[in-house]
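Work Package 3 (structural annotation) set out to generate three-dimensional models for the target panel prioritized at the project kickoff. During this period the team completed the workflow that converts sequence records into discrete structure tokens, so that structures can be stored uniformly alongside our sequence database. As a representative example, we reproduce one entry of 446 residues exactly as it appears in the project archive.
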Amino acid sequence: MALVQRSAPLPAAGRLVFWGRVAVGLAIASWVLLPVDYGQLRLSWSWFGPVLFMVCKLLADLFPIKLRDLEFTVAGAVLVAAAIVFPEPVPVLVAIVPSVAADLLRHKSWDRAAVNAASDATTAFVAQLVYSTLDPHAIALNSGQGVASVTAVVLAYYFFSTLPPALMVSLMKRQPLLHVLRANMYSAYMDLVGLLLFGVLTAYIWTYAPRLTIILVSLGVIIYKVFELAGRLNVETVQALQTIVDVVDERDRYTYNHSLLVAEYSRLVAERLVNDPQKVETIVRAAYLHDIGKIGIADEELNKPGPLSTQEYELMKRHPAIGARILASYSQFSEGAGIVLAHQERWDGSGYPKGLRGDEIPIGARIIAVVDAYVAMTTNRPYRRALSRDQAVDELRQGIGTHFDPVACAIFLKLLFERRLGDRDQVGEMERLRAVRHPEPAEQPA
């Protein structure tokens, strides 16, 4: 279950943590491996077990499962089993050798290979230390103390394998650590703990019925394929919906990449207004998808170079309901569907489609309403030029308490001036965000 960060530039604090992890891992590896008298080692059947574990770990590292901003592998099960079954320095060897080999085969940079190997070495060492200190025979599971010791091993490994990479993502994206942990791990923590418990089962069978290990390896392959399929379906579903939004944006050259900027600004407001990191992530995703319902609106209405007629406006008002209906068909977007449905509601109840007012409107929809209005006002439209930042701010202030949630609007206005968001080139900012979300493929050498 080793977690790996996706590549991204590191700020100064991130680099400090990054190299701190490498230094800790290197110190542990040196302390465990250097005292070994390698001249006395002889090739024998006693190495079959460690080599088999290394092969399994290598395969796990070569085929990670994507999980939003992180990747995780089923290598955690291998390392937990190694920490229970083998004495020092074998667990650290099982951690380091396959990790380095996998990163070399995947052409990872040397610093990434170093931090991955160091992280695996640290978690394997901690798990083995906890196990040997509490009860080196706990795998028998014939007493309450044995069960408690094995539980402590699982918790120690889980903590040391999830916290450091989440901290790295937190520093890279400048988001609260709790938000990163909840956004990436909340929906999968039971799966990850399950993998570690599978590692405990592996250790038990290896100790008491080693011939059944081949069945266990086969089961591990099946479990991996289930995780891989579930992860791929989740990623592909998100990408498919985002592609629909991109198509909607591309139909209107005046609002191209509009949804990216709305999502980015909505994140900044939501992180200050909402305490639940998982809800923040839902709001950001809904903000990106808020105009998905415009896929059902004709180009004539979307690109009309003038005000809409009454009939055209009534047709345009259908887009929140269309978008909500699309999202509601996916279980992971059910809460976001309600936000998309309500993003055109107004604080005083004069919005649509339901005429909700005040706190009846979901907080995410209230945030998106403010941000969407600002981005729309500061973007060129077929029937008018973009307003300046000051003009858009005046419009937002006039809408406080009627169109907009006073708190959400106040937070956004504060952000505009604190972070000088309104001083940025709107088109350039949209293109920057699009480049981050859709990087150009690297050219392949001839």
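Residues 3-32+48-214 form a domain with the Arp2/3 complex 21 kDa subunit ARPC3 fold (CATH 1.10.1760.20).
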